[in-house]
Amino acid sequence: MDSVVAELEGSLVKDPDPFSYFMLIAYEASGLIRFSLLLLFWPIVRLLRLMGQEDAGLKLTIFISVAGLRVSEIRSVARAVLPKFYMDDLNMDAWKVVSQYDKKVVVTKTPRIMVERFAKDHLMADEVIGSDLSVTRLGFATGLVTDFGTLSGRVAKLFGDAKPSLGLGRLSSFGNSESFMSVCKEQCHPPFTTSHKPLNGYVDRPRPVIFHDGRLVKRPTPANALLLLLWFPIGVPLSIVRIIISVIVPVWAIPYETPIFCGSLIVKGNPPPPLSSTSKSSNGVLFVCNHRMFMDPVILSYALGRKIPAVTYSLSRVTEILSPIPTIRLSRDRDIDAKKVKKLLEKGDLVVCPEGTTCREPFLLRFSALFAELTDRIVPVAVNCRVGLFHPTKARGWKGLDLPFFLMNPTSVYEVTFLNQLEHKDTCSGGKSPYEVANYVQRLIGKTLGFQCTNLTRKDKYRLLAENDGTVRYNKTS
C-alpha cells in the first residue's frame, strides 16, 4: 500500500503560520477580549519565531488561546469553523500529490483537536499526528500540550517496520520537519508537482465544505484582526443608525438609501405586479427563494418596493420585532403549516425559503415540497449576497445578534433575480408531483446562481455543526 505523510502548515495549507487559526479559536470559543489579548501578544510570538524559538512562540499562542476553555467548545469551533478557512488556504499542488496515495497521514504541531476534523472529513486522511491539549478532570484546557516535538517517533511507531512511501513538507517547519520526513522512503519539498510519483494518475478532489459556522468572513491574520478591532467602535453605532433607518423609512425608499451606507441592491428579472382587486386570481403569488441569510425575505421586499409577508422557523424575537415586513412563525408540523400558508396566500403574496435553513457556500439544500402542494402561482427567486466582515446568521449563539452583525458590515451586496412564474405544466395541477416541482425549482435557482444542488437538509447541517459525530455524506449532490 502506497502511503504519504504530509505536513499541514506551509505544505497542505499555504500559510506556514497557524496563528490566525488560534485567533479563530479565541474569538469563536471565548470572545473579543481573548481575541484582543492574543493579538496583543502577536509581536512577542513573532519575535520568538525570528529568534529561532518557534516552539516557544507556538506554546505561548496555544496557552493564550485555549487556557480555561472547555474542550467541548474548542472541538465545536474545530468542527464548524476551522475547516472552511483551512479549505480556502488549501495548496492544490500539494493536494494533487497527496491524493494519489492510498494511506494519508497528516502531521502538525497544532493541537490535533483543531486539525483532525478537517483532515479526516475533507482530505480523507487516515491518521492525524499532532500535539494533544492537557485537560483537567472537569473538561477544561490548561493551555499546556503533550507529545510536542515527537513527530518522527510517532510516525515510525504508526508504520512500524514499513516506512511511508513519501514524506511531504518544508525544509524547516518549527525546526522539526526533516525529522519526520527522515523516516520516509522519499521526500518531497515545495514546489510540489504531480510528476513526483504519478501512481495511477487519478487525482481525487477534496470534499467540499458545505456547512460552516462562525461570525468572521475573513481569516483573522494579524492585519485582518487589527482592522476588525478598529472597525468595532465604528460598526456598532453604524449598526444602530441602520436599524433605526430600516424601521422608520418606507420599504419602497430603502433601495435609494442603501448606497449612502455602502450597501448595494441589484435586481434582475421582471417580478409580477401586486395582486389587484380586479384580478381574476383569488390567491397571491408565492415567491420561492433560496436561503443565504435571514435577511432574504426583507431584501426581496425591498426589491419589489412593497411589504411581502414571510414565513419563518427560527427567527429571533428581536429580529421579528425590528423586521420591516410581517413575519409568520411556522411550527414544522406539516398539516398546521400548510393550513397557515394557504390562508396567507388567500390574502396576498408571500415569501418562503424551502431550504429551511441558510447555506453560505455555493450549494443549494434540498427544497421542501410543501410549497408546491399549496399553490400553482410560484415565482422562483435566486438570491445571492456578499458581506465584508461578519456573517450575520450563526447556528451557535444568540440569534438576537444576527441583525446587528449584518448591519455592522462596512459593505454588503445583495443580488435578487426574479425568474418567470412556473408554467401550468410544471406545477402540481399540470400533473407533476410536489417533489418534482420542488426539485425543478431548486435546479432553476441553482442554474441561475451557478450553485450546485444537493440532497442535504437542515438536519444534516445541524448534525454536522452541533454533534460530536458530525460526519455528513458530502456526496449527496444532485
Automatic annotation (TrEMBL):
Domain of life, source organism: Eukaryota
Annotated compartments: Membrane
GO biological process, any: cutin biosynthetic process
UniProt KW keywords: Acyltransferase, Membrane, Transferase, Transmembrane, Transmembrane helix
One Gene Ontology cellular component annotation held by this UniProt entry: membrane
Chain segments annotated as transmembrane: 20-42, 225-253
Pfam family, one: Acyltransferase
A single GO molecular function term of this UniProt record: glycerol-3-phosphate 2-O-acyltransferase activity
Membrane topology recorded in Swiss-Prot or TrEMBL: Multi-pass membrane protein
Domain Phospholipid/glycerol acyltransferase: 285-386
InterPro entries associated with the record: HAD_RAM2/GPAT1-8, Plipid/glycerol_acylTrfase
Keyword flag Transferase: yes
PANTHER family in alphabetical order: ANCIENT UBIQUITOUS PROTEIN, GLYCEROL-3-PHOSPHATE ACYLTRANSFERASE 7
Family: Belongs to the GPAT/DAPAT family.
Record's protein name: Phospholipid/glycerol acyltransferase domain-containing protein
